[in-house]
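Slide 14.
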Amino acid sequence: MSNKRFISILSDYGFKSTFGNTTSTLFLRTSIQALIKSEVPIASVEFDRSEITGLTKSNRGGVFDVSCIDDNGDNYIIDMQLDELKKFIKRSTFYAANRYGIITHRGDFLFEKLKKIYMISFLNGVVYPDSRELHHIGKLRNQHGELMGDEITQVMFELGKWNKPVEEIKTNLDKLIYVMKVTHTLKDTDTFDPPEFWSEEWIQEAIKELDLRAMTPMERDYAERQIIKAVMYNTSMKEREEAMRERDELKEQLTSQITTSALNFLAIGIPPQKVAEGLNISLEEVLKIKNEHQGS
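Slide 15: predicted structure.
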């Protein structure tokens, strides 16, 4: 039986429930600041639509993971790429260029006042195998390396290259990648001695969204349904298989939790109908649990 403790932040559901958390944006803002290597904290952000609709049948559309605008008007598009890494540069360029076009269509044709666009891509693998660099930040430059424009900045992080020991983690960027790569590997049965930064407010904001133990049966059911929904839209076989695997694990854990709760309620004399209402399941399911565990 699966005893997974956290939902993977690399999954569609996990990524959007942390980076796309509309209740509090501290995790998102701190992550962006680390990824773009800014010394200035981002005070606030507002979420923008994360879908590009083609203007005609032949126009290409697209859906990215998170899109937001900060208090200065700068735009951030954040996307997770699990596979098909060879195509991600064209894909991220398309997303950034589309946003640049939207800004001008909004009526601001004073080019010196155009706000910046940051296209941030997490890549679950290695794109540049011959380079030791794993955090790439690029802008338009000429053949001499001189800046030609900073309107669009491409930020890429190769997760497949990161393997820093926990005792060497100092920066917020390393803390972020640690959470992304390590959290979902933990099991309920593991003896986990969390690093000091684990208790930092922005990290805890994400952990609480991913912690299966903190979820009620209804919240787990919602997470499962969202993963199923994501499967319907995944075109990559690898993404589909990963989403299906995570869905099955969540379903198994949800069933186990409901069974345990139902048996505990029945053991203290609560009528089956009341148990069904309390757990938001049918009376038939409660009676089935009761009969299967009779005398055990």
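Speaker note: The two ends are 19 Å apart (CA to CA).
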